[in-house]
Specification:
about 10% strand, 9 strands, alpha/beta
Length: about 425
């Protein structure tokens, strides 16, 4: 019995030793292979004047003509790369996490810092007019420092005209107008009601409609479907973690495997999906519904404004495709040169044309179409296909400031207007 047990233990020990040896050799081969592939691929990238994707994007953006070689730009994009992750936020999916940097500051609510007027010495300032600014990454200020976003420029321009206004930047990367309306509703539910609610949209509405083949849906909605209830699907979760491990720690093997897969697949199966290669605009029904959703959102916010006492303003933003004079970097941006760009350009033309033709929008004083603001500009304002430089942000703010002044003056006049008292008993007509 003892000998049998010893033989079993010896066999198990031998199997474990063999297993560990195989595992060790496998790990050594993986490490040696990964190091070798990284060296070969790095030499190849350098010979083709290429760099890893994240670095290439940062370098390309930092060299954009719109910056004119400003010294702060490379450090800004290095900082922006650190604040990229998102955190979950109810109803609207995501916001930025808190961050404190030299050029970018995000508070604990996921809102970016905005320039505010300095306090007046020796005087008690009256409560400032409160402006909530909603939008996507262009409103957030992608490519600009805190003090040079559209909300910050608005605050500065109004201060220069003698108005003390508190502008809060509710812009978030990738947001569509419906998410912004929900964000405003959540503010109201918490008793945080602005004096003016300003919305700046257009580009993400087009991208979302084309991407989802449907209107009014957030960007990358397919990702949300994949992630839903993922904790209850261990096999799928393991596969996703495996893919993440490959791309993060074994990117040499991952690049080789991706290249082989693309060569083995038939042209019909390779990325981009055939839908992206179609040089066609989105279905007319989707384009039409995109404008209808926007009109509906505007009407909803107007109703909320009447109920809760704030003034809404809506702006339809410019896009690079209608800019007639593009600088070299504006012409060669990858987003502009991508295979699917022709389809996107047609989508922009179709939806923007429908916005111009919308009677519900252009008959409404709350709506302002500033999409042609850069059409004839020879100066470069785009740092990529969608985001603006700091001078570009200032021009956007300048196009809005007079509308804000008009609303501020109207609200002041309403407050100063004498209140009509109801008639007293002596004022009532005597019918005796």
């Amino acid at each position: 019995m003892t000998r049998t047990l010893l033989r079993v233990l010896k066999t198990i020990g031998s199997a474990l030793r063999t297993g560990w040896l195989i595992l060790g050799f496998t790990l050594i081969l993986l490490i040696v292979g990964e190091v070798g592939l990284r060296l070969v691929l790095t030499v190849k990238d350098l010979s083709l004047d290429q760099r890893p994707p994240a670095e290439r994007k940062i370098d390309r953006l930092a060299r954009a003509d719109a910056y004119h070689g400003a010294a702060w730009v490379p450090a800004y994009f290095e900082e922006l790369d650190k604040v990229q992750p998102f955190v979950w936020h109810p109803y609207v999916y995501w916001r930025r996490p808190p961050y404190q940097g030299r050029y970018i500051e995000v508070d604990r609510d996921g809102l970016r810092a905005t320039w505010h007027p300095p306090p007046r010495a020796g005087t008690a300032d009256p409560p400032p007019v409160r402006v909530f600014a909603f939008g996507g990454s262009t409103m957030w200020g992608y490519g600009a420092r805190d003090d040079y976003t559209i909300p910050s420029h608005l605050s500065k321009l109004l201060y220069e005209k003698g108005y003390r206004v508190e502008v809060t930047n509710y812009g978030q990367l990738g947001y569509v107008n419906t998410q912004e309306v929900i964000a405003l509703l959540r503010c109201i539910q918490h008793g945080d009601v602005p004096d003016i609610a300003l919305f700046y949209d257009g580009i993400n509405e087009v991208f979302s409609a084309h991407q989802n083949d449907a209107a009014g849906i957030p960007m990358n909605e397919d990702n949300r479907r994949v992630e839903f209830n993922l904790s209850r699907q261990p096999q799928r979760l393991l596969w996703i973690y495996g893919q993440e491990f490959l791309t993060t720690h074994l990117w040499g093997f991952h690049r080789v495997m991706t290249g082989l897969r693309q060569h083995i697949r038939s042209p019909a199966d390779t990325w981009p999906d055939p839908k992206w290669q179609q040089a066609l605009p989105p279905l007319a029904a989707v384009a039409r519904h995109t404008v209808q959703v926007y009109e509906s959102n505007l009407a909803t916010v107007e109703s909320l404004g009447r109920r809760y006492g704030f003034e809404p303003l809506f702006y339809w933003q410019p896009n690079i495709f209608s800019k007639k004079h593009r600088s070299p970097s504006e012409q060669t941006a990858p987003e502009v040169q991508a295979e699917r760009v022709f389809a996107y350009e047609k989508a922009f033309e179709d939806i923007y044309r429908r916005v111009r033709q919308s009677e519900a929008l252009h008959g409404n004083p709350r709506f302002h179409n500033i999409s042609n603001l850069f059409d004839d500009a020879e100066e470069p304002y785009y740092v990529d296909a969608t985001h603006l430089s700091e001078p570009g942000n200032r021009l956007i703010a300048a196009a809005m400031v007079n509308d804000l002044l008009e609303l501020i003056e109207r609200r002041r006049a309403a407050v100063e207007e004498p209140v009509q008292m109801p008639p007293t008993s002596t004022d009532v007509l005597d019918y005796r």
